[in-house]
Write a structure and sequence with these properties.
With 242 residues, the chain is an all-alpha fold. The protein has 9 helices and no strands. The longest helix has 44 residues, at 105-148.
Length: 242
């Protein structure tokens, strides 16, 4: 049985009437399927540098388009979790759906941890794809310059690396769009501000997964690897895509 459903099955067997079990199980499996899809997702496709050479500005635009498209898909999946959880809450607690049921507080926490881990995997996977695509692009750039004499493909190292850094930031900043839930609930968390601080804001600032993921040392290492390999591909005249 999927680990995400364990807590709910435990509740069902001890505290819920049997006629509610199938309904809870159905909703719990829906959440499990959504989280599994989330974990297998990526922010980048592989198909926009395999053919004719494109300049680094167009490369960035392609990365930006892919990241935005895939972030929207993931956001839709993430936001679909709360309505299902509220349905479960209405069955478990038999009260109005507040997203704050004490019966489900540990389950809400568990779902958030799965989302955090999944988002971290998405960022790592996407950075690996970006590294691969940048090395392919650098190889295409050198080949085009060598055989066609097209000086337009020859960028200053600093310009190329700066664009590569922009691509990296598109990926690492994606978790800013995913708002965390308040502890023990499935309601979005917001930063508490004084009345004077709220003036001029359309809404209170929210707490996202970004800070936690940005401090993940493995992800920091992945970013360093991208910068290192892109710099090497420019300064040393070539690093073959791996």
């Amino acid at each position: 049985m999927h680990q995400y459903c364990f807590f709910l099955f435990h509740i069902s067997s001890n505290e819920l009437e049997f006629r509610f079990f199938a309904q809870v199980r159905k909703h719990a499996l829906s959440i499990t399927n959504t989280l599994d899809i989330f974990k297998r997702s990526t922010l980048l496709n592989h198909n926009f540098v395999s053919g004719e050479y494109i300049n680094i500005d167009d490369f960035y635009k392609n990365v930006e388009r892919d990241v935005e498209k895939n972030v929207q898909v993931l956001l839709q999946s993430y936001r679909s979790l709360k309505p299902v959880l509220l349905k479960i809450e209405s069955v478990v607690s038999e009260t109005s759906c507040t997203g704050c049921s004490s019966y489900l507080s540990s389950y809400y926490f568990q779902v958030q941890m799965v989302v955090y881990n999944a988002l971290s995997e998405v960022v790592v996977r996407s950075l690996a794809t970006l590294r691969h695509l940048l090395l392919i692009h650098a190889h295409h750039q050198r080949t085009d310059s060598k055989w066609t004499g097209n000086l337009n493909t020859q960028l200053k190292n600093g310009e190329y690396i700066a664009q590569a850094a922009r691509c990296t930031r598109l990926i690492t900043s994606a978790p800013k769009r995913f708002i965390r839930w308040m502890n023990g609930t499935c309601s979005e968390a917001a930063i508490e501000l004084d009345e004077d601080d709220i003036l001029g804001l359309s809404q209170p600032p929210s707490i996202s997964f970004y800070d936690s993921i940005a401090r993940n040392q493995y992800i920091v290492g992945c970013v360093v690897t991208v910068y290192r390999d892109v710099t090497s591909s420019q300064n040393l005249g070539g690093r073959q895509p791996a």
